[in-house]
Amino acid sequence: MAAEVLARADVAVTIYDGMPSLGRKFLLAGRGGLNLTHSEPLDRFLTRYGDLDPLLGRAIEHFPPDSLRAWAEALGQETFVGSSRRVFPKAMKASPLLRAWLRRLGDLGVRVALRHRWTGFDDAGALRFTHDGRDVVVKADATILALGGASWPRLGSDAVWTGVLAARGVAIAGLQASNCGFTVAWSDAMHRVEGAPLKRVALSFGEHSVRGEAIVTRDGIEGGAVYALSARLRDAVLRDGGATLHVDLRPDMDAAALAAKLAAPRGKQSLSNTLRKALKLPPVAAALLHEATTARGRPLASLSADEVAALIKATPVRLTGVQPIAGAISTAGGIRFAALDDRFMLNALPGVFAAGEMLDWEAPTGGYLLQACFATGVAAAEGALAWLAAPAE
Ligand SMILES: Cc1cc2nc3c(=O)[nH]c(=O)nc-3n(C[C@H](O)[C@H](O)[C@H](O)COP(=O)(O)OP(=O)(O)OC[C@H]3O[C@@H](n4cnc5c(N)ncnc54)[C@H](O)[C@@H]3O)c2cc1C
């Protein structure tokens, strides 16, 4: 995005990337439909970034969701507002958008140097890359770093830059998994429901609650609703050594209605059958209920109807750890905003700008991640243009 803004201003631009092709994580995001941005009002949109730094706020206000939609549409990718007001390209994938975008960059004269891994700066401040086993040194009038976070490192963003920049005096908040899953010490009985989705559930942690989907994995729990709570859960797990998430397995029925169904005479039908047939709970939900009661030393069948109903409304799941960052959707932490001036230039490295997920912001899924990346890309490029016009200021 930064390259596009610079090239439109007649700056000669080369994009260096360590991978054999561009936009690999962007393409992966497209596998989930490519949630480009969100259509809620901008003031609400900005609240999604938690403790929003004014610099990020101004960048998003300057290149807001409507501008991102217009940009995608100008590349032939019409967008639509889907469920929960998220915005997607109609194609529901990233590849046509990326193809059209790269064609446009080519038409603007942007050059692309692939398999160039940036390793830092030489003594004169030039950029150093490794390419085909050799060192390549490049002198640039301005540099924009957009090296991503640390999730899915095999797609290119491996956060090696943290060491390089920290050594140059750039303040960096430690990278942490964001929009991530958590580990749970499941008993062996849970393995038979591994991979099963808990659909239309509500998850809560403290006073925060979200509806959505979660998936029981071999050693934990993940999925959209877990990601939505993941920043708070992560902080609690890291602070306290664990956290308890509560799952409402039937958010659309209250405890009294559930208890009435459970108390109805069921003849020879087992409790498991009642859960499945009368309450429409899938095997994975029943397994979670058994798991919770077994942990307390009381089999589910020994509970009263009221107790089972209460448990269905708030099944506790004890989280013991945070999923490794490599498997997370995004990264929290990164270059602190205090290390940037209002042009997105690093105070410690004049002429070097930064954008995207490598900056220290965090947001849930919903299009907020890509929106912040695009907006800071525009801001860093405009900052670089201002600096190129008057480098001393
Ligand atoms: C499974 C998944 C699904 C997602 N879905 C969505 C979604 O639907 N909506 C949304 O908003 N966000 C989504 N995201 C997040 C979104 O993809 C990222 O936030 C975004 O791609 C970050 O953009 P970036 O340009 O900052 O970094 P990246 O996209 O990570 O790009 C960084 C680039 O820098 C290159 N690089 C890194 N280090 C070096 C180096 N030393 N030398 C040379 N090149 C280097 C990498 O090869 C890479 O090409 C998803 C992420 C994942 C993992």
Structural write-up:
This protein has about 400 residues and is α+β, with helices and mostly antiparallel strands. The chain is about 35% helix and about 20% strand. It contains 14 helices and 19 strands. It has helices at about 1-10, 25-30, 40-45, 55-60, 65-75, 95-105, 160-165, 225-230, 230-240, 255-265, 270-275, 285-295, 305-315, 370-390, and strands spanning about 15, 35-40, 80, 85-90, 110-115, 115-120, 125-130, 135-140, 145, 170-180, 180-185, 195-205, 210-215, 220, 245-250, 315-320, 320, 330-335, 350-355. It has a seven-stranded antiparallel β-sheet with strand order 16-15-12-13-14-11-17. Helix 4 crosses helix 14 and helix 10 (about 255-265) packs antiparallel against helix 13. The relative contact order is 0.18. The mean pLDDT is about 95. Bound molecules: flavin-adenine dinucleotide (FAD). Flavin-adenine dinucleotide binds near residues 146, 152 and 367.
